[in-house]
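Run log // design_07
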């Protein structure tokens, strides 16, 4: 009788250990899945925002950044001395097209960068206001600040 009680206690302890391991593993799997979903959401939400912001900053010079409307869609045009780069949305993708300066762009040949469900952009003085994937943000154009500077005075 004592022998059976010892075996029963050992098996019960082992079963309890296996159940605790299973519960811990299940919790870790759920946490990992949630982390994957959050990482994917952050990537899809903020990567286009950061990409557009950095592109605008890299072309921030007088007449380097403008917002245009072509074929009913809003486009960011980034210009330097040799080329024009266009950022726009096509078929749920953020697209980029780079052409030689003053060449007529063919927006069907742009390069798909990443997923983009929403893309709205407008220009307000020295500011580009964008909404991408539900995130609204603006980029200050530093190159235009010299137009609004007032003379410095102490009074």
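design_07 sequence
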């Amino acid at each position: 009788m004592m022998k059976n009680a010892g075996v029963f206690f050992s098996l019960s302890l082992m079963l309890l250990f296996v159940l605790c391991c299973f519960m811990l593993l299940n919790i870790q799997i759920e946490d990992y899945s949630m982390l994957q979903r959050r990482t994917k959401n952050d990537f899809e939400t903020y990567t286009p925002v950061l990409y557009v912001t950095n592109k605008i900053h890299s072309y921030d010079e007088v007449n380097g950044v403008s917002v245009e409307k072509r074929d009913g869609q809003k486009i960011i045009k980034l210009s330097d001395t040799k080329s024009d780069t266009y950022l726009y949305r096509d078929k749920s993708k953020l697209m980029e097209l780079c052409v030689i300066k003053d060449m007529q762009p063919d927006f069907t040949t742009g390069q798909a960068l990443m997923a983009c469900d929403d893309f709205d952009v407008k220009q307000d003085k020295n500011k580009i206001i964008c909404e991408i994937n539900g995130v609204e943000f603006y980029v200050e154009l530093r190159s235009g600040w010299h137009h609004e500077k007032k003379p410095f005075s102490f009074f």
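Strands lie at 65-70, 73-79, 83-90, 93-100, 111-115, 119-124, 127-132, 135-140.
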